[in-house]
């Protein structure tokens, strides 16, 4: 199994290392032809406006939008924003991949100084994760909530798509990535 990690910007290296630790072969993805090679994709955290602008500049949106229709895709933090069908606080003209039937709000927990770690339950097990300039999930359409914090959804799944407002790769959490890898056939 070959898992791509969108390597335009953000903490893609941390995802790569975690996926390799879990036994996956990983390809950093920067071009649309690399998307054709992968069995699944991770869209990492970072800055969603910058990520969107780079994806647009590199002509990646058509290939990304096609990939998420058929292949397992995990988006964390900015990656969740990129997968969201609706986004509050988007920059003017900002494009998204879409596909995940949720509404998210960029930087809803506040700026960098409001970042925090917390324990969330994923697949019945608690693990420590980091919320860094994290988005909030404001509304969940067809997606299933797979993790929550203080009664708010913080991770969802809809078919082949996974999204989380947090960064498990920074704290060494493996539950979300393991669930994602198990979905790859």
3D architecture notes:
The protein is α/β, with parallel strands linked by helices. It has a single domain, classed as Rossmann fold, CATH 3.40.50. 28% of the residues lie in helices and 35% in strands. It has 7 helices and 12 strands. The strands form 3 sheets. It has a 7-stranded mixed sheet with strand order 2-1-3-4-12-11-10. Strands 5-6-9 form a 3-stranded mixed sheet. The protein has a two-stranded antiparallel ribbon with strand order 7-8. A hairpin with a 2-residue loop joins strand 7 and strand 8. The longest helix is centred in the N-terminal third of the chain and has 10 residues. The mean pLDDT is 94.
Roughly how much helix do the residues carry, as a percent range?
A: 25-40%
The CATH topology is: Rossmann fold
Q: Would you identify the CATH H-level superfamily?
A: Class I glutamine amidotransferase (GATase) domain
Separate helix tally: 7
CATH class: Alpha Beta
Please give the alpha-carbon distance between the first and last residues.
Answer: 8 Å
Strand content: 35-45%
Specify the overall morphology. globular
The structural domain count equals 1
How much is the radius of gyration in Å? 15 Å
Major sheet details: 7 strands, mixed
Unreliable spans = none
Strand order of the largest sheet: 2-1-3-4-12-11-10
Q: Report the strand count.
A: 12
* Topology order in helix (H) and strand (E) letters: EHEHEHHEHEEEEEEEEHH
Structural class, please?
alpha/beta
Mean pLDDT across residues:
94
């Amino acid at each position: 199994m070959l898992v791509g990690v969108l390597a335009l910007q953000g903490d893609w290296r941390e995802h790569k290392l975690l996926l390799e630790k879990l036994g996956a072969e990983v390809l950093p993805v920067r071009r649309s032809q690399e998307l054709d090679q992968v069995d699944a994709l991770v869209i990492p955290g970072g800055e969603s406006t910058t990520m969107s602008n780079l994806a647009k500049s590199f002509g990646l949106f058509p290939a990304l939008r096609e990939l998420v229709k058929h292949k397992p895709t995990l988006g964390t933090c900015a990656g969740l924003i990129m997968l969201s069908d609706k986004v509050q606080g988007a920059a003017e003209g900002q494009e998204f991949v879409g596909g995940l039937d949720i509404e998210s709000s960029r930087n809803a927990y506040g700026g960098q100084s409001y970042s925090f770690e917390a324990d969330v339950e994923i697949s019945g097990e608690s693990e420590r994760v980091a919320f860094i300039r994290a988005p909030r999930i404001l509304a969940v359409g067809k997606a299933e909530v797979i993790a929550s914090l203080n009664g708010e959804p913080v991770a969802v799944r809809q078919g082949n798509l996974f999204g989380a407002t947090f960064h498990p790769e920074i704290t060494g959490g493996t539950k979300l990535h393991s669930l994602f890898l198990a979905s790859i056939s």
